[in-house]
Design a protein that fits this description.
Helices cover 6% and strands 59% of the residues. It folds into two domains: 107 residues, Carboxypeptidase-like, regulatory domain (Immunoglobulin-like, Sandwich); 643 residues, Maltoporin, Chain A (Beta Barrel). The chain is built from seven helices and 47 strands. It has a 22-stranded antiparallel beta barrel. Strands 8-13-14-11-12 form a five-stranded mixed β-sheet. A four-stranded antiparallel β-sheet has the order 3-2-5-6. It is mainly β. The N terminus is likely disordered. The longest helix has 18 residues. Keywords: Cell outer membrane, Membrane, Receptor, Signal, TonB box, Transmembrane, Transmembrane beta strand, Transport. It is found in: Cell outer membrane. InterPro entries: Beta-barrel_TonB, Beta-barrel_TonB_sf, CarboxyPept-like_regulatory, Plug_dom, Plug_dom_sf, TonB-dep_rcpt-like, TonB_rcpt_bac. Pfam families: CarboxypepD_reg, Plug, TonB_dep_Rec_b-barrel.
Length: 921
């Protein structure tokens, strides 16, 4: 159903801007025509981001950016005390006098906590933690930060893995590598990903979640996870917004370059995995302006060869009779990541900035999967044998994903006003050319088939099962898919700051217009009846020339991919197109968003408050295909929807003392349904006289959530923090897959699968975080850095289904939500040596709902504990050697159906080793 917005967004934005201008013109204290600026460094001129710079008498503060810079554009004339706070550094104070002329303080150099002449630690493990904690401490809302230095302390190869160390954050893995990010137990599709403020497009067909394994961690300056949304941030997340920030030449006080070369090895695959990366920044003089133009370039190229051994049932259990089907899988994988970033900044003065940010990342996944599938005639228990069929199957494809982004903008301060104009664009695609979706060879057995074991299942079969001669070709399915998503946006923001008797106020308003377009197309070929087509080669022995190297058990002959391609290329493809499968998954969606917001910030002696609201209006036009199997007809379908949402927020921070503070907030957020859920596609088929249908639902409502946060933070005088954050989310319009067969309009259907909105879901939890720099022992213990975080969550949601014509409900936890997520890291560091051992843990969680009316078939991912080790040796000032081990404890992935013994999927990846050299200057 379409609903008109209460206010048109363009009228709303004009009203916001007018109101701000009127307020700014009539309120506030007169300013002197003077600016105060400077830069925070250590005594070796290394920049300190995240430092809080305060003019004590005015309760006016700034937080330094990655370049360590701060600017107060216009201040009342007078004498003031400037204070600088930075985690791990002593409090710095300096007297300043504001008159008619701008005051440039230059570099303010901080000292260590003990006020010695030693410089503040900004490199290595301690320095990385100091940067992150300083930015978190001074943020208006609840923010968790991983800086580039901190990411370098762990053996993380992509942006997703870099985030898994943060409190409240966990990752979903693909073949052992981190891919998607979960925040506070909410699935990846419930979180937004932005690059320097512009939303990143998602490469996968039906999803909004951005696969962050596409982006190498070498290209990033920092990654921030905002768990509370301020009104100036775009909607699109329930758990959090993941902001990827790229490097800038101004992030360093001098020209810089770094080159890294690495070779890796995986214990399951006898192959080497090379990687090279480089970063270079340069500052240039423009006219009379010294160091006013900065150019930064980063590149990364890595090729990783690895594999996995797998055993899975796919949930083919018939409780309590036993198992009906299972398979063994051997994966051989080669992944290549190419990442490029080129950024330019021009700063003619301290109040004006122009910038260009670019990103290109390409991820190529070449995967070959040999499978041995056992289809039993009836369900059997472990150790029992009977008759059935074995299928040897090959899947082979090269899939390429890419993500690119471009951001252009300017930020300028004019008196008490600051304004920003920005345009952004992002594109993502996923391309899988003509490839083998499944080449199957079968052999039937009258007896002797069964299984044994639990997690990693073992096949029980006669010796003939492992010989190629007994298998004949059954079917070859080929596929070709392409998905493309584009997002374009433009935004304008204006703020006005003024000093009142009770503190410092800032009013801010802005508008943003964005357009997102997603298209997906797929072609499927089903080659079969080969003898009728004149094919003479029907035995597997004619398509196999090697054996599968499968460590857990005996496997047998491998299917040769080149032979399969040769077979299908000898036939006329047009004769084998599957018309239905080639049409039903094609869709196009066009979303246009218009947003406006108004927010106010007030900072007093102890309080920091943010209040405001955002309005977003969405217009969506989508198209798909309807297939009617009864009439054998294809029909184009279209759906148009329009909807608007108000998103208020109130965020507060109260300073108990110099080291402790309390945070509290309320906000409302939303997430739009996935494209696959919204697509107006409809598939109607008849099976043995029964009607079966599956279709999308363009009328789905967006998920919305009312969020409450309350927390306490205590920062040590040295390097350390203790914090506890309690959160609660009341989620409306929870989306799940439902079967409407038997309900009104579907009375004669055996199956009518679609998506529908549930009533409510709830999520609550607590995040605990601790960091401690050991000191005071006078020995090697003073080189230890300890960090740990624990997130405890719980959730509940309801699913609806029909039972004997009556609508029933059952309760579940939210999919992808672990009750416990934890990280522990122990670091040891001297001037030359750095060692770090990290443990990452998440408890079992609901991976997918099996059958709506029977919880016994729900699929759960088992708990997962992974150990990673990293070490570095500083050979000289510019040369560093490192050695890393990923998955030190060889932790597998295991999922089960209902009960722990009932395998759904078991996969082991082995350990990965990396030896590298870094040269920097």
């Amino acid at each position: 159903m379409t609903s008109a917005p209460l206010f048109h967004p363009h009228r709303l934005s004009r009203a916001i801007w007018l109101g701000l201008c009127l307020t700014a013109a009539t309120t506030g204290t007169a300013y002197a025509d003077a600016a105060l600026s400077g830069r925070i460094t250590d005594n070796q001129q290394r920049l300190l981001p995240g430092a809080e710079v305060v003019i004590r008498e005015l309760n006016l503060s700034r937080t330094t950016a990655a370049d360590g810079r701060f600017v107060f554009p216009k201040l009342p004339a007078g004498s003031y005390t400037l204070q600088v706070r930075y985690v791990g550094a002593a409090l710095a104070e300096q007297a300043v006098i504001i008159a008619a002329d701008p005051l440039q303080l230059g570099d303010i150099k901080l000292r260590a906590v003990d006020n010695s002449l030693e410089h503040v630690e900004v490199t290595g493990q301690s320095g990385a933690v100091s940067k992150a904690l300083s930015r978190q401490r001074n943020a208006a809302g609840i923010v968790t930060v991983a800086s580039t230095d901190e990411m370098g302390q762990f053996p993380d190869s992509n942006a997703s893995e870099a985030l898994q160390r943060l409190a409240g954050v966990s990752v979903e893995r693909d073949q052992g590598e981190g891919r998607f990010v979960r925040v506070r137990g909410l699935a990846p599709d419930y979180n937004a990903v932005t690059y320097n403020g512009t939303s990143l497009a998602a490469p996968e067909a039906g999803r909004r979640a951005v696969a962050l394994d596409v982006i190498p961690s070498d290209l990033l300056e920092s990654v921030e996870v905002s768990k509370t949304l301020t009104p100036d941030m775009p909607a699109g997340s329930l758990g959090g917004t993941i902001e990827i920030k790229s490097l800038s030449a101004f992030d360093r006080s001098h020209d810089f370059y770094s080159f890294t070369a690495e070779v890796g090895h995986n214990s399951l695959v006898d192959a080497q995995s090379p990687k090279i990366s480089g970063v270079a920044t340069r500052l240039f003089d423009v006219g009379d302006n010294s160091d006013s133009l900065g150019i930064a370039f980063a590149a990364s190229l890595a090729k990783r060869k690895f594999g996995s051994d797998n055993s899975e049932t796919g949930g083919k259990w018939d409780f309590p009779a036993g198992l009906e089907e299972f398979e063994l899988r051997d994966y051989q994988i080669s992944r290549e990541r190419l990442g490029l970033a080129l950024n330019a900044d021009y700063r003619p003065d301290s109040l004006t900035e122009y910038y260009v940010r670019t990103l290109y990342s390409r991820f190529t996944d070449d995967e070959s999967r040999q499978a041995l599938i056992t289809e039993l005639d009836k369900a059997q228990l472990a150790g029992v044998t009977g008759k059935g069929k074995l299928v040897r199957e090959l899947k082979q494809r090269e899939e390429q994903q890419s993500i690119s982004a471009l951001v252009l903008g300017t930020k300028q301060q004019q008196g008490a006003y600051e304004w920003q104009l920005e345009a952004g664009s992002s594109q993502a695609d996923e391309d899988t050319p003509f490839s083998i979706s499944g080449a199957a060879f079968t052999q039937k057995f009258k007896a002797g088939l069964g299984f044994q074991g639990s997690d990693m299942l073992q096949l029980i079969a006669p010796d003939a099962a492992y010989l190629a001669d007994g298998y004949n070709i059954d079917e070859v399915e080929m596929g070709e898919t392409y998905t493309k998503e584009q997002e374009h946006n433009v935004r304008a923001d204006l703020s006005r700051e003024f000093i009142a008797a009770d503190g410092v106020w800032q009013l801010k308003t802005g508008v943003k217009i964005s357009q997102r377009e997603k298209t997906a197309r797929e072609t499927v070929w089903a080659f079969e009846d080969f003898a009728d087509a004149g094919v003479k080669a029907l035995s597997l022995s004619q398509y196999s020339n090697s054996m599968v190297d499968f460590a857990p058990s005996r496997f047998g002959p491998a299917i040769n991919a080149a032979s399969i391609y040769s077979l299908v290329n000898s036939l006329d493809r047009d004769d084998y197109i599957d018309d239905v499968e080639s049409a039903i998954n094609n869709f196009k969606a066009d979303e246009q968003l218009s947003a406006g917001y108004l927010m106010a910030q007030w900072e007093g002696d102890l309080w920091h408050l943010v209040a405001g609201a955002r309005y977003e209006h969405e217009q969506r036009d989508s198209s798909g295909i309807r297939y009617d199997g009864e009439q054998d007809t294809f029909t184009a379908t279209n759906a148009d929807t329009s909807h608007g949402d108000w998103l208020p927020a109130l965020i507060s921070r109260y300073q108990l003392n110099d080291n402790s503070q309390i945070r509290a907030s309320y906000s409302r957020s939303l997430v739009r349904p996935n494209f696959a859920q919204l697509a107006p596609a409809y598939l109607l088929e008849e099976d043995d006289g029964e009607l079966e249908a599956s279709f999308g639902n363009p009328e789905l409502k967006s998920l919305t959530s009312d969020n409450l946060d309350l927390g306490f933070e205590h920062y040590a005088d040295g390097l350390g923090v203790l914090s506890a954050m309690v959160f609660y989310k009341d989620i409306q319009h929870f989306i799940y897959q439902a079967d409407l067969a038997g309900s009104a309009g579907y009375e004669n259907f055996a199956v009518a699968e679609t998506y529908r909105n549930g009533d409510k879901a709830r999520l609550s939890g607590i995040e605990l975080n601790a960091v401690h720099q050991v000191s005071g022992f006078g020995n090697w213990l003073d080189q230890l850095l300890l960090s740990a975080n624990l997130t405890l969550t719980r959730s509940d949601a309801s699913l609806g289904y029909l039972d004997d014509g009556k609508w029933q409900q059952r309760d579940i936890t939210l999919p992808s939500q672990s009750d416990r997520t934890a990280n522990i890291a122990i670091g040891y560091e001297t001037e030359a040596l750095s060692l770090r051992l990290a443990a990452n843990y998440k408890s079992a969680y609901l991976a997918e709902v099996g059958e709506l009316d029977d919880a016994a078939y729900d699929v759960f991912a088992d708990d997962h504990l992974q150990l990673d080790f990293s070490s570095k040796y500083q050979w000289s000032d510019s040369v560093q050697l490192y050695f890393n081990i990923v998955n030190l404890n060889d932790e597998p992935y295991y999922a089960y159906t209902g009960q722990r013994y009932a395998n759904f999927q078991y996969e082991q990846y082995g350990r990965s080793f990396a030896l590298g050299l870094q040269i920097s200057h």
